[in-house]
Structures are given as C-alpha cells and as structure tokens.
Write a structure and sequence with these properties.
alpha+beta; about 15% strand; single chain; NADH Oxidase
C-alpha cells in the first residue's frame, strides 16, 4: 500500500467531489439506487474513523412509501413551526426554500448513534463525551462524498423530532437518530448551493475563518 501522496489525477478527483457535493432537495429523478452502488456507498461510510474504533453507527434503509410519507408529513409540520418564527424578508426567503426530498428520492438512509457501542470504556472518549457523535458525523460525510462520486445525490433532512423518528422506525431507547438522508440518482447537481441561490446565506471566505496559534 502506498504511503505517499495521491497521484495528481486522484487528488484532483477528490477535491472535485468535495466541492461538487450538494445538499439535494429538488433534483432527485426517482430512479432506484443500484445494489452495488449502495453497497460501495455504505462501505465507505463504515470505513470512517471512530473514537476508540467504536464504530457507533447503524444504517437503517427506508424504502417503504408509507413510512416515508409519514416522515414527510412530520417534516412539513416542523417546517411550519420554524416558518412561524420568521418575519419580513427572512420569512419570504424561507418560503421559497424546499427543505427535503423524502418523497422524490429513491431511498432514505437513517444514520444512528449508539453511545454504548464498544463501551463503557471507549478509548479516547473519557474527556470528550461527544467524540462518538463526531464519529457518526464522519461516517455521514464519507457516505455523502462516496454517493457524490457515484453520481448520486444526498439530502440531509433536519426538520424532525428525534422521538418521532425513534417511534416511526422502532429505534431502541438510547439510540439516537442523527441524520435522515435522502439518497438517489439526480438529474444534476447545482453549481451554487440552494441556500446561496435563494439568498439565505453566503459562504464565508476561507481567510475569515482561519486563525493562527490563538483565537
């Protein structure tokens, strides 16, 4: 196994995938995810680093239309709750933003966190309790980048209450649903992210978030 830097084409491809990745809402075409592609994407997620090699994630694959419809209805109710907190121009901007692709995507992948996995003595977690949760987020990012490299789109739906998802999917007590991801083939990926195109927020220049030695 090589321990040196990637060759230039491989490195360029990696950076391209990172910058091409989008949080997809409207571009799913409804076609199924090929089985071999799904296996590769999940394997990439499972290859993520984790604190103490605890691997505290599970991946629930949700295809049932009734389950996805029930979740979508819940998401829309939570959307209304958030919308009610906005006023003026911000409310107008949010009204134009689509927040999920639950019904349009081919598949949902719910990523969970098990704090008891490999416990109670998880190497490296004694001082930072959330290190396991961070590990799950790394798995999610791996999944997202792998899906992008495969020509798939991913959308992270965050407008939900954890107890609702636990009940809907029969998730045991103590297991947290961290991300409901919509996954599937897309017509295209937008060049400019949705929230920027809709005027919600702009990406900060790199130099404004890099600090040296101290804050």
């Amino acid at each position: 196994m090589s321990t040196g830097p990637f060759d230039v084409p491989s490195a360029t491809g990696l950076y391209d995938v990172i910058h091409r990745r989008r949080d997809v809402r409207s571009q799913f075409n409804g076609e199924p995810v090929p089985g071999d592609v799904l296996t590769r994407v999940l394997a990439a997620a499972h290859a993520a680093p984790s604190v103490g090699l605890s691997q505290p994630w599970d991946f629930i694959l949700v295809e049932d239309s009734g389950t996805r419809r029930a979740f979508h209805d819940h998401v829309q109710r939570e959307r209304d709750v958030f919308a009610a907190s906005l006023t003026g121009a911000e409310a107008e901007r949010f009204a134009q933003i689509k927040i999920d692709g639950v019904l349009e995507s081919s598949l949902s992948v719910v990523v969970t966190y098990d704090a008891e996995r490999a416990g109670p003595a998880v190497l490296g977690r004694h001082a930072i309790a959330d290190a396991g949760l961070y590990s799950v987020c790394l798995a999610i990012q791996n999944l997202w980048l792998a899906a992008t490299a495969e020509g798939m789109g991913v959308g992270w739906v965050s407008f939900y209450r954890e107890p609702f998802v636990q009940n809907l999917l029969g998730i045991p007590d103590g297991i947290r649903p961290v991300a409901w991801l919509c996954l599937g083939p897309v017509t295209h990926l937008e060049v400019v992210p949705d929230l920027e195109r809709r005027g919600w927020r702009n990406r900060l220049p790199l130099e404004t978030v890099v600090r040296r030695e101290r804050w």
